[in-house]
Design goal:
The complex is a heterodimer of chains A (about 120) and B (about 240). With about 120 residues, chain A is an all-alpha fold. The chains are: A mainly alpha (about 120), B alpha/beta (about 240).
């Protein structure tokens, strides 16, 4: 990786980190759900500052151009974040269902009580 | 013995009155509750006008979530046996006696009403029977029980299993999955012959063009469930 690409990457990641922290401070992001975003930013930052790590990895897995492993890494993070989003949606869906059932059961009880009076 | 019949209903305005009247005359001692799953037709209005006992879900949950609301209602009101019966008139309430019998006499937890054991009454289409046979085979190799009519929505659950279903119940196409869940959690499952009619109104939740999607999803759900509970069944056996 040449030096200008590294500087470009570092600037991008710092902006990216800045946006995440801005959202966190404004409470528009839940810290629990943004951990994976922060984690990805930190890993990318480390990789850009110390490219020796990924040069080793890329020669291990047989990638000739080290820039490509940066893309692979990014792609993996995107997949990971998407997966975690699906997990969050599933969890919300489950809780939503329980709430709907609880509301329906309560509505029935209220209706029964009202008709008794 | 307090028995509750849960009738999930989605757009059943044509048949629901008939189904409830029939149930009340044939089984006067049995309580029922209709689960209106956010119908877009007049199902709620009809229930209200006739003074039926119903739960009105504010958001559409699908058959699984609807039936589970029924199980929760059964737990809250302390019922001993919960029966699930379709709102389209396919299931004959006379067969409730047969469904309940194994639970009372033999301590079984889940009784499936099957239309295939004695071939009485209405038999379904060829396509659907092929699918049902496949599921029968899959459930047989996955958890070693023989159930012929795995998609039957006419079934009875004991108090213990009602409690279990009220906290955990399969969602999209729950019938075959619920059998697996019961067996793999150590409940006893059996099957009895029941009489089924052609539906009086409404549509099946399993439409023709969705059959492949349905089969793939259910098969996957069964396999995942099987893998997920390998550990617990092994522990039980030891």
């Amino acid at each position: 990786m040449n030096i200008s690409l590294r500087i470009f990457l570092i600037i991008c990641i710092v902006i990216y980190l800045g946006i995440i922290i801005h959202f966190l401070r404004k409470k528009e992001l839940n810290l629990r759900y943004s951990l994976i975003w922060l984690f990805s930013a930190v890993v990318m930052l480390i990789v850009s500052i110390f490219p020796g790590i990924i040069i080793k990895i890329s020669s291990l897995v047989g990638i000739i151009d080290t820039v490509n492993i940066v893309f692979v890494l990014e792609g993996m993070f995107v997949l990971l974040i998407l997966l975690s989003l699906t997990a969050i949606v599933s969890h919300l869906n489950e809780r939503n269902r329980q709430l709907i059932q609880a509301v329906a059961l309560l509505e029935k009880r209220v209706r029964d009580l009202e008709s008794k009076e | 013995m307090k028995i509750l019949v849960v009738i999930p209903a989605y757009n059943e305005e044509e048949s629901i009155v008939e189904v409830v009247r029939n149930l009340n005359t044939v089984q006067p001692e049995v309580d029922y509750v209709i689960i209106n799953d956010c119908s877009t037709d007049n199902t709620v209005k009809i229930c209200k006008e006739n003074g039926f006992n119903y739960i009105d879900l504010p958001v559409n949950l699908g058959i699984g979530g609807g039936v589970q609301a029924g199980y929760r209602y059964a737990v809250e009101n302390g019922y001993d046996i919960t029966i699930q019966m379709d709102g389209d008139g396919q299931h004959d309430p006379i067969s409730i006696n047969e469904l309940v019998k194994p639970i009372i006499e033999k301590d079984v937890d889940l009784v499936i009403g099957s239309r295939f054991i004695t071939n009485d009454g209405f038999q379904s289409s060829v396509m659907r029977r092929v699918g049902i046979n496949f599921l029968k085979w899959l459930i047989n190799i996955c958890c070693d029980v023989k159930i012929n009519d795995t998609t039957s929505g006419f079934r009875a659950a004991s108090k213990k299993l009602t409690q279990h279903f009220s906290t955990e119940y399969a969602q999209d196409y729950p019938e075959p999955e619920a059998i697996i869940a019961a067996v793999l959690n150590g409940y006893r499952v059996c099957e009895v012959p029941v009489i089924m009619h052609e539906r009086q109104g409404g549509e099946s939740s399993i439409k023709a063009f969705k059959t492949i999607y349905y089969m793939a999803k259910v098969s996957l759900a069964i396999l995942i469930y099987r893998i997920g509970s390998f550990k617990s069944t092994r522990e039980k056996k030891l």
